[in-house]
Amino acid sequence: MIQNSRRKNESKSSLSLLSSDDVNKKTLINRIQSYFYSHHLAFSSATSRISSLPFQSLSISLVVAIALSLPAGFYVAVTNLQKIVNVTDSSNTITVFLKTTATQPQIELLKEKVSLDEGIEVIKYISSQQGLDEFRAESGFGDILKMLDENPLPPVFLIEPDKDIQNNSELIKKLVTRLKKEHLIENIQIDMMWLKRLQAILLVSERLSFMLGVILAFGVLLIISNAVALSLDSKSEEVIVIKLVGGTNAYVRRPFLYTGLCYGSFGGILSWIFIAIAVYWLSIPIEKLSALYQSSIELEGLGFFGLISLISIGVSLGLLGAWLAVTRQLSAIEPK
Predict the structure, then answer these.
(1) Domain range for residue 200?
(2) What is the C-alpha to C-alpha distance for residues 226 and 257, in angstroms, rounded to an integer?
(3) Is 142 found in the same domain as 67?
(4) Are residues 200 and 82 in the same domain?
(5) Same structural domain, 235 and 137
(6) Euclidean distance between the first and final Cα of the chain, in Å?
(7) Pure H helices in 126-192
(8) How far apart are CA 172 and CA 192, in angstroms?
(9) pLDDT tens, position by position, for the chain (336 residues)?
(10) In this structure, what are the phi and psi dihedrals at residue 262, rounded to the nearest 5 degrees?
(11) Helix 193-234 and helix 54-89: axis angle, to 10°?
């Protein structure tokens, strides 16, 4: 009898434990469901509010898109210019003009001597006649050149510096100084100053785009914050009723956060579209221009990761602006 009673008590206790575990699981599931349901209601409320005011919502999204497009456009421009600079850096050619009185054996000896320099990777010789033939073919002044008594073009060395010194202006200058010591060399042409200026402009443009992005980010925050604040003012009586029935500040804040999220995401998508259109519009004349210089330059847009970045930035600014606006005004809206 005693053992039977113990077994019954143990079975009852185990059932009570199982029932308590089931209750806890059901409670947890209900909480998760209610959490997602409340977010679903908040998102539906935000989208219905935005769709009820299409012109205002589109205007805010366009302002956000313009604010994001300006620094992003600077970034795209700097990226493409940097690509051009890298291509130019990798093909720094030193043009060495020889004296017209130099004989062919002297030129051959000089070429062998210069090619031994450790700073030179490739040296190409263009004779006076070759230079004249190329100039006649490319310029179209063949008939005029026939009137000349002698060939005015000097022999030329085209020197490609070693890869280790191509991007080092000081080492390039030292190489030019060594070449100038040769008595058969008349003149040396290398224009790296424009490259330095372009690199300096790119550095300034990078910092300018960053500063512009920070300033416009504050502008986006103000725009979204004011828009959400106006929307909250129009719903002040509804907010008071929600607070009277026990609604928390987080519950009241949630739909407006989704509103800011929608403004930011729409603005990021529109910004990416604007930049894609601008890149496509500029790519056609740039391709024609690069063809004239016998090169191939293709503009690069933001791509998929750029789209994700713009949406992420827009969403972050939208959420932050909405949170600041709602937090500031909820303290002023209290039921009496």
Answers:
(1) 41-88+196-330
(2) 13
(3) no
(4) yes
(5) no
(6) 66
(7) 128-139, 142-145, 169-180
(8) 9
(9) 444 454 545 444 444 444 555 656 667 676 677 667 776 777 777 777 777 777 888 888 888 888 888 888 888 887 877 776 655 554 567 888 888 888 888 888 888 888 887 778 788 888 877 776 776 666 555 555 566 666 667 888 888 877 766 666 677 778 788 888 888 888 887 766 666 666 777 778 778 878 888 888 888 888 888 888 877 777 767 666 766 766 677 777 788 888 888 888 898 899 999 988 888 888 877 777 666 655 666 777 788 888 898 889 888 888 888 888 888 777 666 655
(10) -65, -45
(11) 160
> What domain count does the chain have?
2
Q: Which residue has the tokens 């949170």?
A: 323
Query: Which CATH number is 178's domain given?
Result: 3.30.70.3040
Do residue 302 and residue 211 come from a single domain?
yes
Tokens in use for 131?
Answer: 């230079």
Residue type, 295: S
| Sign of torsion over alpha carbons 325, 331, 335, 336 | negative
**Residue type for position 92:** N
Total count of residues recorded for the chain: 336
Q: From CA 106, how far away is CA 102, in angstroms rounded? A: 6
H-state helical runs in the chain: 2-52, 54-89, 104-115, 128-139, 142-145, 169-180, 193-234, 236-244, 249-292, 303-330
Q: Which 3 state secondary structure label does DSSP give 326?
A: helix
Nearest one of 18, 171, 36, 151 to 92, comparing CA atoms: 171
Joined together, the tokens standing for residue 16 give 């009570």
Q: Which amino acid is at 293?
A: Y
